[in-house]
Each structure stands twice: as structure tokens, then as C-alpha cells.
DNA sequence: GATTGTTATCATTATTACTGATATCCCTTA
DNA sequence: TAAGGGATATCAGTAATAATGATAACAATC
């Protein structure tokens, strides 16, 4: 009656995401041979091919895609059973491993951590700060339960949810003629010296597109993948940078730098919440996620009102 | 990582529904010993008890109930995979086994069968006419894909959906003073000679309650579990009966009997659609179900307008 | 054409599940 | 109170299933 089993579904999901039996085998701690036989078995039982094989890898057939969708749903529900156990066995506990893009380190993360730790003292929290590619990777292979990253190209095996849209802010040193919080049209500016994150960074790509599209004059660009150093550099030189609103918010009145909403048009960054597609969150993880999401949403709303260019444009 | 497997879930569901390892083992074609070991394994892995055992049988714990809910959902989705295969492999085909309460034999079933067979010539249809208890049993153990029955006490392992509410109609021979389609208040009547289905029949129970509650005077009751004989008896004697509107509709103008909406208050019957809780319908079954449901709903609406007591009460 | 990196296959081994007999428990009944 | 019936648990042996490691076959790349 029931041909399919969970092992086969797990294999199918891994192969589908890795586009390779070999890589999938590595991921699920099995041998390529084993996967090959299991998928063969599954295909024979169902009477249709799930993957087109070649010596360079595999591509899922239509049926393979369809089954992948179902399989992730099923596996997520199965993992929910195991999470239920935690819930049923009483108080909230366990370990939550979260990835965060650097943007949220202060404005968002700190208050959430404080609150959460107070409410759920038995939950062990581990936060990793990294750029989106690293975080996506870590979530995919189960090292992290979830992460918040800037939106970018989708990684297979992840379930993503849009959280909020934030404004990007132009940051300069105090030694300029512009006044603090005055909007700026980057394309009508003298050539910029910009400190930006390196290529590959999701925000960087969006910024590059913006600079090109609106022909923003550039003097030179420095690659700095560290927020702290960037801020420091900007405040003590004529280098400038572009940072997400959420990151700037805690320092909005800091005299060491000036913030300028970007207009014509505004430059924005979208934050997305990612988690493994075929796994459900533990109760602790769910609660933590709720807090994070709430905090990010309110912070972004606040950013938009304080640093958004909406008023500037209208005025 | 993944402890639970589908076999365990299937066992859990069977045991939960049968309230017995032994009976469940029979149902899933396995031994009591095997189930015992699998559930033991599952309980140990999850770290909690799923059933409280006694020598009289077994009762699910809270955790057992919770898991049962999840398990049925998961198994339904897994069976959906297998149904997908049919769908993916092209045209609609397969075998659909439906159970029908006798009420629908003519007014509803015939047109649906005709239409469906024309649209989907490759689907093999098997219809079984029986009373609700038999149909529930057959759906539970997989002999039928689905059934339509009068609402009554819920059987575990079934997923039910309310279809429509129909009026019950008082049926007499032509040799009475009453005029055809004239509403009747049964409690203000001379003692009745009623032919009714035997006890255990779901409609009978509802009728009994009605007769008692509104103190309908009864001369005598005959138990007839055959619609055809009942109709025949009524038309040729002073015996009367109570039948669902849907059943009467095709004969509404037949001079061999008279129909009377029941008022003060109206007596109604609810139809429900049942299917196995832990299995999803094949595409063919889904299409057939849609047709049946649609037909029953329109028929009931029609019944209510033709045979309903609403107007009578208002007037 | 050698090399690298795929997947498929096969015989063997390891693991897992099932079976059937039996033990144990509890409730009912004589 | 003892016997009987019906339930689940346990155990050792067996059967079924899955994983392994080596190898083959193939395609792309250098």
C-alpha cells in the first residue's frame, strides 16, 4: 500500500537540492550507491523517472519537482512531530541557533536577546553574525535553525519569508557642508569615495546596480567587510558609505557622522527570514523567530519615518 | 535525525483508531508483536508514552492523540504522492469505489454516473448501496474510497464534511383525505402506522428522537430496511413512512403516493461526505466526489423549495 | 588520451523488522 | 479462589531490507 518511505523522501530532497547524488550522499551521511539504489527503487515503484541523469549531475524531471514540493512539506511535518515532543514535555527549552546579518547586531538583536533570555531562561541561544551567503549555507546544512538576510538570489532548500523593507542611508563625516538628515541625490553629487562591502555581498550587488542605473559619479571604491571599521573610517575622513537604516538608527544622534536619506530614487534593502525547507522550527526557535520578526518590523517602520526619503520626495 | 518512520505512523494510527494492538495488527496485516515493538521503539525514541496499556485494551495519552492528528495528516500527504503519479502519467483513470445511502440511488446517483462516465471513460466506477454503519466500516478499512451517509455518531479514522441539510417527508397512500404536498403536523394526527428502518440506522435514531420529543402518537411501527418495499407497502395500505426529500423527488408526481412536508417543527436529515482520515483521494475519486457533492447540494436545495415546510410555516 | 567526476551495478555485510511461541498481567466468571 | 479468556510484552530466531565498497561505464575537460 505505502511504497514511499521517509528515507527515500529525505534522499530525494537532498538530491534535488544538490543536483547530484554524490553531493546529496555526503549531506545525508550515506553513500552515493545507497542513494542511487533507493531512488531507483522509488522510481520503479512509482513507475516514473524523477531525475534525468548525466555524467555531470542530475536534473529533476517534472515529476521530480512535484515530488520535491510534497516531500519537503511532509518532512517538515515529520520534524514537527519531534518538536512537539519538546513542547509536550513541558517548559520551553532547547537550543536555538540563529544567523544574523551584521545590520541587526545592535538595533534589533540586543533588545530581543535581552527580552527572550528573560522570558525563556532555559533556552540556549547562539547567534552567528555573517553575510548572507555564509548564513544561507549554514541554514541549508542544518548548522543554523534560521537566519535573517538581505534578499538576494534564492538558495534551494530554504524557505524564505519577506520581513520588511528598509531604507539605505548615505553616511558621511561631520566635516561636510550638508546638514545632518538632509536628503541627498547621489547622482547629482561630486564623485564619491565609497566604502562598500565586497562583491558577492547581497547588498553590494543591489548598490552596484543602483550606482550604475542612476549613473552616480564615483571617485573610488574601497571594499570593507566590517561595519565597525567602515563607520570609523567614514567619521574620520572624506570616505563615505551606504548603510541600512536599521544599522544607523542607534547612532542617529552621534555627532561623529551625518546621515542622509537617499532620494531620486530611494535605495532600499529587503530583509528576508530563512529556514530549512524540510524542517519545522522547534517551539523555542519559533518563539525567538517571532520576537526577531516583530522587532525588525517595528525597527524598519521607525527607520522609514526617521530616515526615509518619503517626506523629502513629497516636499 | 529523523527517528519517526511511516510504518510507525501507520501503526500508531491503526492502534489509535482500533484502541487495540491486536485489532490494529489485523488491520495492517502484521502481528501484534510487531506493532508492540515498533510502538515501543517510537515511544523510547520520542521519550514519552503514546498509549496507556491495560489488559482490556489501550487508550491514547495526550501525546498519542497529538501524534495521531499529525500522523493522519502526514499519511494523507504521502498517499497524495502516489495519487500524483496517476495524475502525472496523463489521463484520468483508475478505479473509484463509492458508498451511497439508499436515499440517493435515483435522484442523485443516476445523473452523476451518466455525466461522469461520459467525461472520464477510463475510470472504473463501483457504487455500493448500504446503510451508514456498513459504509463507515467499509471506508475505514479501505474497501471504499468515500461514501455519503446521514450524519450520526462519528467513527474514528474518518474525515467527514457536511454536505447539505434535507427535509424528511411524510409519505402516505393515495387513499387519505389529505391532499398531496399538504404539510402535516405529526403530533396532531391520529396514531400512525409507520414503516421505518431498523434501529441502528442513523436516520431511524433521529426520527425516534423526533417522535418522542414531540409526542407523535404511534399505532405501530414496522421495521423495513428496504426502500422499495417500503414505498410499495405505503402505496397499497394505510401504513405510512418518513423518507428523505431527495428520495421522494423523482416520484413527486407519482399518483401512487402522497407526500407531506413535516411541520411543527420540520424534521431534517444531514448528509455528510466521509473518507479515510489518513488517505488522500485519487484524482478520479476527487472528480467524482466533486460531482456527487454538487449534485446533492443542488438536489437538496430543490427539495427544500419543493418539499420544504418553510412556506407552510410562514403561511 | 589521460584525468576527473558523474551515476549504475553487484556481491557482501550490516542493520532492521517480522514472526511465533511464550510470559505476564488483569478482568471476569464459575 | 481458581480457571479462563483476552489483552500486551518479551525473546530468540529468521527474513527482509538497506548500506557498503569496489568496479564499471560514461561524459566532459585538460
TrEMBL record, chains A, B:
Leader sequence residues: none
Keyword DNA-binding: yes
Transmembrane segments: none
HTH lysR-type domain span: 4-61
Superkingdom of the source species: Bacteria
CDD domains named among the record's database cross-references: PBP2_LTTR_substrate
Similarity field: Belongs to the LysR transcriptional regulatory family.
Name of the protein in its database record: LysR family transcriptional regulator
